[in-house]
Write a structure and sequence with these properties.
The complex is a heterodimer of chains A (321) and B (419).
Chain A lengths: L2 H10 L4 H22 L9 H10 L11 H27 L9 H21 L3 H30 L1 E4 L2 E4 L5 H11 L6 H17 L11 H4 L9 H26 L7 H23 L6 H24 L3
Antiparallel strand pairs in A: 1-2
Chain B lengths: L15 E6 L11 E7 L2 E8 L7 H5 L7 H5 L7 H16 L5 H29 L3 H22 L8 E2 L2 E2 L8 H24 L1 H7 L7 H7 L4 H4 L7 H4 L20 H25 L15 E9 L2 E9 L5 E7 L2 H6 L1 H4 L5 H10 L4 H4 L5 E2 L6 E2 L1 H19 L14
Antiparallel strand pairs in B: 1-2, 2-3, 4-5, 6-7, 7-8, 9-10
Helix pairs in contact in B: 3-4, 4-5, 4-11, 4-14, 5-6, 6-11
Classes of the chains: A mainly alpha (321), B alpha+beta (419).
């Protein structure tokens, strides 16, 4: 198999789009099932999220009269593509499939912001005032959580450890490097700075996934799905798939960066799966035990306590805690 | 949703746009139109349009006998079925100058309080849903379900009992189910306590709802706000205590108030009222007297009467005028939401969209009960008479009648005419 064919396979089939979408939709099902159990409902069957997407893809695409058609139609694809590439760049180092290092924290961070940016542009192009409000809220939210999220992830790169009297640090933004560092000295999470950063990062993931209490951009009962308001059919389906991809990627990224990644043994795989599921379940439980906050409250929360915790963690990591 | 539009506004307000909440919107259980004029996310003006689901029930009632009307009036509201039927009975009994027998009064109290309990639980759930807290939504509605079941056990139907009757009640409660009803109340007591504590202790809920949609006591008086919405601003108004009907005068219970006037206080007042309603129900079950169910009213003489009733949403008023026939000449219904909805002018201006939506829901508005008109088109198919025209017309009428009676019309017209 040629190198290009191999890359295409990694990107589109495994561990990229096809695998990650499947995993993401299974996690969407898990989310809906856990939510249902918390709320004394029965919840959907496993196939439901898949059928939802299939149904959306069979529906008509409606172009709002006031929209900018090209941007409006292109943005779902951009969101999906960004999330898909991000997924393969996180999973490849985790699974150790690539021959040379591919995972770079900066690139992954940019790609993970793509779905939100695409949604903001798509909503702005739709010409709907409620979608515009949703987009403006999403911009503010993005500005809010990106700083603490980046700071928290950098903790893994800069954490200083004492190994046989020598001070070592991952000292790299490569995901493979961070993984190798953790295999050498144990997971980042085990130190106070790592734990703090992990907590800050999981709160940011809650907002990145657009879940309650940070679902302000969609806020059904305020602005009627907000940014997604004018989307239907294939466009909406692609955004849903992009969200599913993020649900498969972000917990895996957290496990990779903070929690030791994946080792190629039966127990290693089970432990990894357990960690990913645990993060998803925590996100779902937070979602179900909180009301939606106002956008100004969310912003104050991320720039205040969360950013503080992340920066303190970064400082502590540098000082060897 | 295709109901949202940007409309050009008056010159000098270029940065304003109009956000339409309704007539169909996830926030609303019924069709109603709220137009929020916004600058960014800040709401600078609110307008409500209510002429989507006028059912003409007053007119229908004027074509039915006094015996049939309570059953019709149960259909005014999807929740307040006991409210409107008993309120009508109160009005006719006021006209007659009679009081129903003790057992009938206790039965009215029991079904009325069961209705308040399921109505308040319904609101708590909806309020949770409106602020994205769907777990509260599902839990509150799960707790509500057994209450509706008890209502069905005792009366035969979850909502519409068909029990109130002028001069008493039509049927007895199915007393064999009282032990089961007591058991459900005991369970509910614990659940309501848990729910109340959970709400009171939740820091995120407090951050989200405290200081939002505040009504001052003065605004409550100015706008004539009633019910839990008024009591949450520290105004202790409750028809059950101020002008007791049914058996409320003989039972031991408290009027719940809270001083803050915000949405959080409105939630707390309703949750604490649930506990009071359970207290009232237990006493009514214990003291349910024997005796007649009805006075057996056969004739309603000419005259007029006014009935008041403390609905879950506040004071309900019915006015009845009889001309001595078996049908009322005029029935006028003023549901509590009619006055509460106007208070949005005071509680919503200047807030953000996120706060306005929960404030709109906080007085538990009920639109089908409040509807008094539809947009009328004259028979020739000509010009439509919009709500504003009709209001202007009724203001002219009020002033004409006031002049005829030689009384000053206490009517303040807003600058620029109606609306």
């Amino acid at each position: 198999m040629g190198a290009i064919a191999e890359w295409v396979f990694h990107l589109l089939v495994f561990p990229g789009v096809l695998f990650s979408v499947t995993l993401g939709l299974v996690l969407v099902w898990l989310e809906r099932k856990v939510t249902a159990l918390v709320q004394w409902r029965k919840g959907p069957p496993l196939a439901q999220p898949f059928w939802d997407v299939v149904k959306l893809f069979g529906k008509e695409t409606i172009l709002p009269a006031d929209s900018v058609p090209r941007a409006f139609l292109a943005m779902p694809l951009v969101a999906f593509a960004g999330a898909g590439v991000a997924a393969s760049l996180v999973w490849l180092p985790l699974l150790g499939l690539a021959e040379r290092p591919v995972g770079d924290l900066i690139v992954v961070l940019y790609l993970l912001a793509m779905p939100s940016l695409a949604l903001i542009l798509g909503a702005s192009a739709s010409g709907n005032p409620l979608a515009a409000i949703g987009a403006s809220r999403d911009v503010k939210l993005l500005l809010g959580y990106e700083l603490p999220f980046v700071a928290a992830l950098l903790v893994a790169a800069f954490q200083v450890r004492d190994v046989d009297g020598a001070q070592v640090s991952a000292g790299t933004l490569s995901l493979e490097g961070i993984l190798a560092f953790q295999q050498q000295v144990g997971s980042v999470l085990a130190r106070p700075s790592g734990l703090l950063a992990f907590l800050a990062a999981i709160i940011c993931v809650q907002a990145k996934l657009g879940r309650v209490p940070f679902d302000v951009a969609e806020a059904e009962t305020e602005i009627g799905e907000g940014a997604l308001l004018e989307y239907g059919g294939v466009g909406l389906g692609l955004f849903k798939l992009a969200h599913a991809l993020q649900l498969a990627t972000l917990p895996a990224l957290l496990v990779l960066v903070f929690w030791g990644g994946l080792t190629a043994t039966v127990w290693g795989v089970l432990a990894f799966a357990g960690k990913v599921l645990a993060i998803v379940v925590v996100v779902v439980l937070v979602e179900n035990t909180n009301p939606r906050v106002r956008i100004d409250q969310a912003l104050r929360f991320f720039w205040g306590p969360v950013a503080l915790v992340a920066l303190v963690a970064l400082l502590a990591a540098r000082l060897g805690y | 949703m295709s109901t949202s539009t940007t409309e050009p506004r008056a010159a000098g307000a270029d940065d304003r746009s109009v956000v339409q909440i309704g007539p169909f919107h996830p926030l609303l259980e019924e069709p109603v139109g709220f137009e929020l004029t916004v600058e960014g996310e800040r709401v600078v003006a609110v307008d409500a349009r209510m002429d989507y689901i006028h059912k003409g029930i007053e007119r229908l009632a004027q074509q039915r006998t006094y015996d049939m009307i309570p059953i019709l009036l149960e259909r005014i509201c999807g929740i307040c079925s006991v409210t409107h039927s008993v309120c009508f009975c109160n009005a006719v009994e006021d006209l007659l100058g009679v009081e129903p027998p003790p057992r009938a009064r206790y039965i009215r109290t029991i079904i009325g309080e069961l209705e308040r309990v399921h109505s308040h639980l319904l609101w708590v759930g909806l309020a949770g849903h409106f602020i994205g807290y769907n777990t509260v939504f599902m839990w509150a509605w799960k707790y509500r379900e057994p209450v509706c079941d008890v209502f069905e056990m005792l009366t035969g139907h979850r909502q519409n009992s068909a029990i109130p009757l002028v001069g008493g009640v039509r049927r007895d409660l199915r007393v064999e189910y009282l032990p089961e009803a007591r058991r459900v109340l005991d369970e509910l007591d614990g659940q309501v306590r848990m729910l109340t504590e959970a709400v009171l202790d939740d820091p995120v809920l407090a951050a989200r709802l405290r200081g939002v949609g505040v009504l001052t006591p003065q605004q409550v008086v100015d706008y004539g706000v009633v019910g839990p919405t008024a009591r949450a601003s520290g105004v202790a108004t409750d028809v059950r205590r101020d002008d007791p009907y049914a058996a409320y005068g003989e039972l031991d219970w408290q009027v719940i108030t809270a001083p803050e006037g915000d949405v959080f206080a409105k939630a707390v007042v309703r949750l604490l009222e649930l506990a009071e309603s359970i207290k009232i129900l237990r006493q009514a079950f214990d003291r349910l007297p024997g005796g007649d169910l009805s006075l057996g009213i056969r004739h309603v003489p000419a005259g007029e009467g006014i009935g008041r009733y403390e609905a879950p949403r506040g004071e309900d008023v019915h006015y009845v005028r009889s001309n001595g026939t078996n049908m009322p000449e005029r029935l006028k219904v003023r549901a509590p939401s009619f006055t509460n909805i106007a208070s949005f002018q005071a509680s919503c201006i200047g807030a953000s969209i996120a706060d306005v939506t929960i404030t709109l829901a906080a007085c538990d508005p009920c639109y089908s009960c409040t509807e008094r008109t539809i947009v009328v088109r004259d028979a020739a198919g000509g010009e439509a008479r919009a709500v504003g025209d009709l209001i202007a017309r009724s203001q002219r009428e009020t002033r004409r009648i006031a002049a005829e009676l030689g009384r000053p019309a206490d009517l303040v017209l807003p600058a620029g005419g109606a609306r």
